[in-house]
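Re: export button greyed out
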Amino acid sequence: MRDAFALALNQASKDHDNIFFVVADISPASSLQGFLADNPDRFLDVGVSEQSLVGISAGLAMKGFRVFAYTIANFVIYRPFEQVRVDLCYQQLPVVLVGVGGGVSYPALGGTHHTIEDIAIMSALPNMTVVSPCDPAEVMAAVVQSFKLEGPMYLRLGKAGEPNFTADAPENFELGKIRKLRNGHGIAIVGYGPIMKMAFDLVSSETLRGKEVAIFSAHTLKPFDDEGMAQILSTFSRVVLLEEHVYSGGLSSHAVRLAWETGVKTDLRLVHLRDEFIHVYGSKEDILAAHGITPERLIQEVFE
Amino acid sequence: MANQISMDELLASQQRGRGYRRRILEVSQRLSALHVAPAFSCLELVDSIYHFCMEDPRAGKDVFILSKGHGAMAQYVVLESLGLMSSAQVLSVCQPGSSIGGHPDRGNPGVVASTGSLGHGLPIALGLAKGSNELKENSQVFLVMSDGEFMEGSVWESLMLAPSLGLNNLVIFVDHNKSISRGKIPVMHPNFLPLSEKIQAFGWETIDVDGHDTSAIVNAFRNRCGGKPLAIVGHTVKGRGVSYMENNPIWAYRSPNPEEYAIAIAELRDPEEANA
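Workaround output, generated via the alternate export path:
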C-alpha cells in the first residue's frame, strides 16, 4: 500500500503542479523516488514534530498547495489531534493525512503503534473525509480522487506487500460509495482495509460450499454511504461486517444504526476489534486472533 | 541608527494607540466580558506591523497572524483604522449575527488563520513562509504571539525548525507581558525566563524592545542583522494604558462597568483634548 501510494503520488504530480509531500522523520517508499527527483523542492521532512507536521501542512495548503502529510498512522492523528481539528478541519484545508500502518499493521510494536479507534476519532470531526482502501489498487484510486476534495482527508493505509484483489471487481472505486467487489446472493461480507484479504481467502477456499458470497468494500467511512449500506442490508439475508477497528464509531456501528433506521431484519454479524489494549506480540494474525478475529471465526459468521 | 521612524510618525502612532484603546473599551460596553487587557498589551506591536513592517497590508502580499487569538480586538481595531474591517463589524463583535468573535476566524477580512488555541500560529506561519518561498513571492509572514503561548510544545518544535528551513521571511513579535491566566510568570514559572535567550539558542535573531514603544519596535525590525528568522520580544504591560487595569489579572477577561469605563476614557484622552 505504501508503494501504491508513492506510485499514485508520482502519477498525480504529472497532472497537478501544486503537490507538497511532508513527512515527520519517516522514509517514504522507495517508489517515491520519481516524485522526489522531479520535485526536490516539494518534499519536506519536519523531523520528529507531528504538531508542526500538521500546522505547516495547513500553512502550505493556505498557499494553494495540495499537501500530503505522511507518517505512521498513530503519529499523524493522535499526537497532533488539535492541529488536525483546528488547523485542518475547522479551517477546511485540503491536506491528506496519510497514516501508514493503520489498525494493527505493526504487530511487533505494541499498542502504542496500533490505531484501533482512529476511524471513530477522525469521523467525529466535521469536514473530515475518512478513507481506508482494501488493497493497493484502491489506494491509487483514493489518491487520484482526493484532489477533488476541498477539505482534509485521513487516508488509512496498511504497510507494504498487500495483494491486489479488486482487479475483477464489478464496480469501480468511487469516493463516498460502497463498492461491490464480488457478486453473490444471500450472504454479503462488508468491510474495509487490508483485513479484507480474509474475506477473499474465504471465498477462494473450499469452505465456500457452493454459496455465492458477495463482498463489498466500504472504503469511505466518512461521509458514509448510508444509501449503499441500506441497500445491502435490504438485499442480503445475512451481512457480515468485517473491520480492523473497535465497534464504536466504525463500520459496524453505522450498519447497526442503519438497520434500526430502515427496520430491516437482516442477520447482522459483527467482526471487529475488541475495545481493549491488547499486550500481545507476534504476527498480524496473532494480534487479530487475540482480538477474536480468525479465519475460522469468519467462516462461522458467514455460514453458521 | 538608520531608518528610524520620524517624530511625526511616532506621535501619530501614539494617537492611534489611544484611539484603539478607547474603541476597544467602547466595544466592551456592549458585552459582559471581553479580552480587553490582552489586547491592550499587544496594540503597539500589531500597529507597528501593519503600519510600518508589512508591505501594503491592503494588497495581501505579506501575511499577518495573531497567534494569541485572545488579543483579537487589537487586530480588529487596527484593521478598522486601515479600512480593512468595517466599523459596523467591529462594533458587532461577539453579537448574534456577527461574523467576528472573541478569536480571529479565517475568512473574515484580514484574518488568514483561525487562532484562539495557543501554539497553532507558529507552525502555520512556517508553512506559509515555506510556501511563499517556494512560490517565489518574496513576501513576509508576521506573527504576534503571547509569551504564555511559549509554554506549548508545538512552539518549540517550530522554533527549532524555522532556521533549519531557512525561513528568513518569518518574523515573530512576542507580547512579553509576563502574565498568564493565574498570575505572573516570574513567580509561577521562574524557569520560563529569560525568554529571548532561549529563542536565540534555537537559531533565531532576537531583539528585546519596549513593546509599547513604536519607534523601538520598528527600528528593531528595520535594523535587523538578517539571515535568520527574527523574533522581536516586546516587553509589555497587560492592560497597558489604563492605570487600574495594568498588571491586574482580573482584567484579562472582563468589561469595565460604566464608572470604570469613564475613568479609563478620561485617562486615554488625547493631550490636546485633555488640555482643552
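Residues 2-15 of chain A form the longest helix (14 residues). The button fix ships in the next patch.
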